[in-house]
Each structure stands twice: as C-alpha cells, then as structure tokens.
Design goal:
The complex is a heterodimer.
Chain A: H1 26-84, H2 89-126, H3 134-137, H4 142-177, H5 191-219
Chain B: H1 2-7, H2 9-22, H3 27-44, H4 55-64, H5 71-83, H6 87-99, H7 105-120, H8 124-141, H9 146-158, H10 167-176, H11 180-208, H12 225-251, H13 257-274, H14 280-313, H15 316-325, H16 330-345, H17 351-368, H18 373-387, H19 395-403, H20 410-433, H21 436-445
Helix pairs in contact in B: 2-3, 3-14, 4-14, 5-8, 5-13, 5-14, 6-7, 6-12, 7-8, 7-9, 7-11, 7-12, 8-9, 8-19, 9-20, 10-11, 10-17, 10-18, 11-18, 11-20, 11-21, 12-13, 14-17, 15-17, 16-17, 16-18, 17-18, 18-20
The chains are: A mainly alpha, B mainly alpha.
Chain lengths: ~230, ~475
C-alpha cells in the first residue's frame, strides 16, 4: 500500500540540552526515555506478530469460505457418483464427515474474521491507518498532530478499551465457566471467540500506551515517528 | 441549565459527534468516545439506566458474528489481487483498439472497462489504479486533453461503487436490513443509466470540442482482425468467468454474497496464476492491505454502534425521526434534503463512516415515510459515489494523483473531475424522480413471490387418536 511512508529509524536522538528541564538530570531522563522506548518496541513487535496472524487469517478465511460454498453445492453430485463408482467411496465418507461438521466450518469463518479484526486492529493503529476526519488534522503542523494524538489516546482510546474490557471479560468468564457450545448442531465452542474480544481490546490499549510514549518522546525530540497519516485506500 | 441539557440531550450529542470527529483523532475511537461521554451524562441525569452500557457486549457479538461483514475482507482481497494481475491491461489494450478509430474512442474504452471491472470487483481503488496506470500515458500520448483524461478515469473507476457486486451495496443492505440480492438487482438499472450518461458526455465532448478527444491515428492501431479478436477474448473470457462466479452465483441463489466474494477472490488468484503474475509478495501484500482495511472498518463499526446505542438511549432516534418526517414536501422533500445532506457530508466522511453513522439515523424515517428501502439504498449509493470524486478530498482523485505523471497538475485533476460530478448528480436526480429504474430489475429477478405461495396440507384420512395421558399419579 502506498509504499511512500517515511521510514525513519526508531530511537534517533538529538543531543540533550542541559538545564532545560529542572529536577531530573538530562542523563537520568535519557535513561528513563530509553527504558520506555524499549517497552514500546516490545509492544510493537508483539502486535506486529499478531498482525501477521491476522494477515494470514484473511487468506485462510477466504479459502475456507470458498471451499464451504463449493462443497455444499457439489455435494449431491458426488454422492450420486459415489453410488456407482467404488473408488469414490472414500470421497463420500469424507463428505459425510464434512456434513457432520459443516456448522463448525461455517462458524470458523467468522471466528477468523473476529481474529482478523481484533488481532489486526492494534497493528493497524501502529501503522497509523485508522481513518480520520482530516479536515482540521490535514491543515495543522506536525506538532499539533502529535498533541491531537496524545489527547485522543488519553481521553478516547484508553477509556474505551478499558470499558470494553470491563464489559467483555466477565462475559468470556461466564462462557468459559458453563463451557458454552454453539447453538448450531456440531458447531464450535464459544469461549475462544469471546476471549478474543477482551484480549483484542487489551492489545489495543497496550498499543495506545506505546503510541503515547512514542509521541511524548517525539515532542521532546528524542524519537522520530515512523508513520505519517495517509488516507487508507479502499 | 441542567434542565436544558436533559431536554436537549440528543441534539447536544449530535453536536458532540461533530466536534469529536473534527478533532481528527481516528474516527472509530472518537465515535465510541462520544457514546461513552454522553452515556455518562445520560446516567447522571437518569435518562438511561446505569446498566445500559451492558448492551454493548451484545452489539459487539452481533458485529463479529455477522456473516455479511465477512464480504468486506473478501471483496477487498479480490480487488487487491485483480489490481495487479494484468486483467485490466488486457481489457484496455484490446477494447481501446476496438474503439480507437472513433473520436473519444479511448474514453469509451475506459468507461466500458471500468464497468466490466466494476462487475467483477467491489472496490474503487483497484479500478482507478489499474486503469490509470495503463490509460493515462496512452491517452496523453495521443493528444487527449489532460483534464478530460483525468476526469474520465476517475469517474469510470468509481462506477464500481454502483455496479454489483459492490461492497458499498453489501454494507448498505446490512445497515438497511434488506437482502443483498435485491440490492444488487436494484442497482442494475442505475448502473446502465450511469454508463449511458458517461458515454453521452463523451459523445458531447467529441462533438463540441473534438480536439480534446482525437481518434487514434492509424499507426497506433497495431492490431486488427484475428489477432485483435484473440486479444479481446483473452481479456473478456476470464472477466465473464469471474462475473459469473461472483454475480451469477448470487443471482441464482447458489451462494451468499460472502461466499461469492470468497470464490471471486480465489478466482482472481487463479486468474493471476494463469497470467503468470501470481507471486508470494503480491498475495501477501494483498492480504496485509485487506487485513488493515478490515480492522479499520470494523473498528469504525464498533465505534458507530457504541454511539448509536447511547444516541438511541437518550432519545436521538425519535428526535431525528420527527425532524425528518416533518420536512416540507413529503417524500420528495425528504429525499432531496437527505441527498443534499449526504452529498455535503461526503466531503468530510468516507463511505464507511456514512454507512455506519448516518444511514442508521435516516433509515427509520425513510421507512416511516413509506419509501422503499432498496430504492433508498441505491439512491444513497449513487450519491456517495460522488464523494469519491469531489475535489479536493475525493479518494479517486488521490489515487489518480499518486499514479499520474508529475507533469499533470493537481488542478487539472480537480477541474477534470467536475463535469463528471455533475453527471453523477444528474443520475441521482433521475433516480429520485424515476424509482422504476431501480424497482424494475428487482421484480424481474424475483421469480417466486412469497405471497402467492400456497401450501396445501392434505387432510388426514384417519382422525388422530384422542390423547390419553391416563390418571395423574397419586400424590404421596
């Protein structure tokens, strides 16, 4: 996509000006910032890995869904053929097995979809691709943009993630406790997909914290942001 | 003061929405934040119960378990693959040669290829980029004016929005609670009108300003006869195959739109393999783009649901509904107002935000006025299409800018788009005053009318034996 993003190296630091900030010595401050930036790198690389999982889920879900449709409409033809040709017996057995688990395959589609969204969301935040209304944002300076992101993360993103975790976590626990099953015959166990919700929002909150630290460091001239905002393609 | 806030919670919340969104923080979180912020006040003032937000879990579950939303990644993935698999090149090359001798021939070719690509894929970026990369240099080389070139490519790329299997129509069908199949059938007529309008405009241009759209000189027509036919078929046959795979299976009721999208994606992978353009990086890039777009869109939906849940809770739906249904001019007044509103708001919001935030507010009012929601949806879809083209924020123009040679001025892209925006507006007006253009095809494709089905249950010959449970067991 695009491919023209500014890929600055992380952790580029300007020499620290002495006596600019009272209280903490510049050296100590540098150490704190370094530690915090290490923390953000850990979060970033974790969410990147989840992003890779989410990316592969796209292809998997696609193949599964296409397969589901193809098998469902080809099934009768195969069953008819299977009566006449002995060598197709294995196939008919396979179809029988598929038939018994069809609901599991159908439900796996939207489990994957959930994974795509909730595991991929934090990575999308990292690469700054959540769409914005850039009427105002497009006109202001880089510094103002950083401030917008700081305020937005503290007032919008973090509270929302916390509230959503607060509501979805007990919901998962309940599902886990009663070992909730799908209401469709042969469907899947429900708790994994319900677990994905609080986990996804927690990852999002972590990524929010990481972005927060990076932007604070950028304000102090200790970090260059990797991703500028571009409207995503549709 | 408190009394005022209590009484006007819904309008205040709407104003809050505008303010929060304008700040420029990612829309998904701004939306959810408006919801939570006003939920806090709503609970304080006793407008909604303290456990009201607990409904959020059900809303979330409704989003992730919605099969229809799966169409978003599938169609996006399909578009990402098609964009780079060489199909558009083949089509443009051959159809351009076919129409070449006519004045404006290359423009017609772009429009037709835009329509064909539109009938295969559901995403605008794929069409505009694929067509722009190939057509811009060719058209400029043979003396087409820059503005006309930019306009026709941007406009033809956005035809995708309206022609089934458009992703926009899937999302709108979901939001309006109508079947995707009907929505697609309803969009057939308007798509045809749109292509006709575009072609008519090219014809007008070639009559009034022939220098803008010259015919191809003889030496540029390298193919003719059999080789041209072969080349055309190489583009057209796989296209028809894909169109059948996606649209045919939906209209015949063989596959759900989601499954059709998945099959289309697999089909486009196969096509790319056939054209020898299928590489690992291509597929992975497509997957990664798709994942990010899907996550972004569904997060907007999560935000929008949080907003609408609270908005509904503080009486917003009633407020909007009474306001919209009391507009002067009845149905037409409502439609004109709504379309102007959507046209303006489309400058600032992108399509998914409009579909998830604005449409749920408008739909109940439209329904109450007795407006056919399919017609309404197709109308909105045709309208939103302009948002891809209006300067300076239109997406299609952004894509064009990113691929046009530096010699093309940005102002040329903007000016070039304007006549086509007007054509779109004409289309919207036609649809408002001629609803049959939408409903005609729905009736055509509906072979079974559920009202005429009569189920005869044969009388039983022998009466059922009387029920006898015996004496109730004696209580101990």
């Amino acid at each position: 996509m695009g491919g023209q993003r500014l890929r600055g190296r992380a952790g580029i630091r300007d020499p620290v000006k002495k006596g600019e900030r009272g209280g903490i010595s510049p050296v100590a401050e540098g150490k704190i910032v370094d530690a915090l930036l290490r923390f953000t790198r850990a979060i970033d690389s974790m969410n990147e890995k989840f992003g890779v999982i989410a990316t592969w889920l796209v292809l998997l879900a696609c193949l599964l869904s296409a397969g589901n449709a193809a098998v469902r409409y080809g099934i009768n033809e195969f069953l008819v053929l299977g009566q006449d040709f002995a060598f197709l017996h294995a196939l008919t057995t396979g179809i029988g097995w598929y038939g018994n688990n069809a609901n599991a395959f159908l439900e796996a589609q939207w489990y994957m979809f959930t994974g795509m969204v909730l595991l991929g969301g934090p990575y999308t935040l990292k690469v700054n691709e959540h769409v914005r209304v850039d009427l105002f944002y497009g006109m202001v300076s880089d510094r103002t943009r950083i401030w917008i992101d700081l305020i937005g993360t503290i007032l919008f993103l973090l509270p929302i993630c916390i509230i959503l975790i607060y509501f979805t976590w007990p919901w998962f626990l309940e599902s886990w406790r009663i070992d909730e099953q799908s209401s469709n015959a042969g469907g899947l166990v429900r708790w994994p997909v319900k677990l994905l919700l609080p986990v996804g929002f927690a990852l999002m909150a972590l990524q929010g914290v990481s972005e927060l630290i990076k932007r604070c460091a950028a304000l102090g001239g200790r970090y260059r942001l990797e991703y500028t905002y571009e409207k995503p393609l549709q | 003061m408190i009394q005022f806030v209590r009484d006007n919670m819904a309008p205040l919340m709407f104003a809050g929405l505008v303010v929060f969104m304008l700040i420029g923080y990612p829309a998904a979180f701004s939306l959810a934040a408006v919801g939570l912020f006003f939920a806090f006040f709503g609970i304080q003032y006793g407008l909604i119960g303290s456990d009201f937000l607990g409904n959020l879990t059900y809303q979330l579950y409704g989003i992730i378990s919605n099969d229809l939303l799966l169409a978003i990644p599938f169609f996006t993935f399909m578009g990402a693959i098609l964009e780079r698999c060489g199909l558009a090149e083949d089509l443009l090359d051959s159809i351009g040669q076919l129409f070449g001798p006519v004045r404006g021939g290359l423009s017609y070719a772009v429009i037709f290829v835009g329509a064909i690509l539109g009938a295969i894929t559901g995403t605008v970026a794929a069409s505009v980029i694929a067509m722009g990369v190939i057509s811009v240099p060719v058209m400029m080389k043979y003396g087409y004016s820059t503005r006309h070139t930019m306009g026709v490519i941007a406009a033809s790329g956005t035809i995708t929005q309206l022609i089934p299997p458009s992703l926009v129509l899937v999302v709108l069908a979901d939001q309006l609670g109508r079947s995707v199949g009907d929505m697609y059938a309803g969009a057939i007529g308007p798509s045809i009108i749109q292509v006709a309008l575009f072609c008519a405009w090219v014809a007008i241009v070639s009559l009034l300003w022939p220098k803008e759209v010259p015919a191809l000189p003889l030496e540029a027509r390298t193919l003719s006869g059999w080789p041209l036919f072969k080349k055309s078929m190489r583009g057209i046959i796989p296209s028809l195959g894909l169109i059948f795979l996606v649209l045919g299976t939906i209209f015949m009721g063989l596959a759900t739109p989601t499954e059709a999208g998945a099959m289309g994606a697999v089909g486009s992978l196969a096509l790319a393999a056939f054209n020898r353009t299928l590489t690992g990086p291509l597929v992975y890039q497509g997957m990664a783009t798709t994942m990010r777009i899907t996550a972004m869109v569904v997060y907007i939906l999560i935000g929008a649901r949080t907003f609408s849940l609270v908005f509904q809770g503080v009486g917003g739906k009633v407020w909007i509904e009474t306001m919209l249904t009391s507009l002067p001019g009845g149905t037409v007044g409502f439609l004109v107002f709504v379309n102007i509103f959507v046209f303006v708001i489309a400058f600032f919001l992108d399509f998914f935000e409009i579909a998830f935030i604005i449409i749920p507010l408008l739909a109940p009012a439209a329904d109450k006025l007795g407006i056919d929601l399919i017609w309404f949806g197709v109308l909105i879809c045709a309208n939103i299409q302009t948002s891809f083209m209006h300067p300076p924020f239109g997406f299609a123009l952004f894509y064009l800018r990113s691929i046009a040679p530096p010699s093309v001025k940005t102002s040329d892209i903007y000016w070039g788009a304007i006549p086509w925006v007007f054509l779109q507006v004409i289309l919207v007006v036609i649809l408002i005053f001629w609803p049959q253009s939408v409903t005609y095809w729905i009736e055509q494709t509906k072979t079974v009318n559920p009202n005429t089905i009569k189920i005869d249950i044969p009388e039983l010959d022998t009466p059922l034996p009387p029920l006898d449970f015996g004496e109730p067991p004696a209580r101990k």
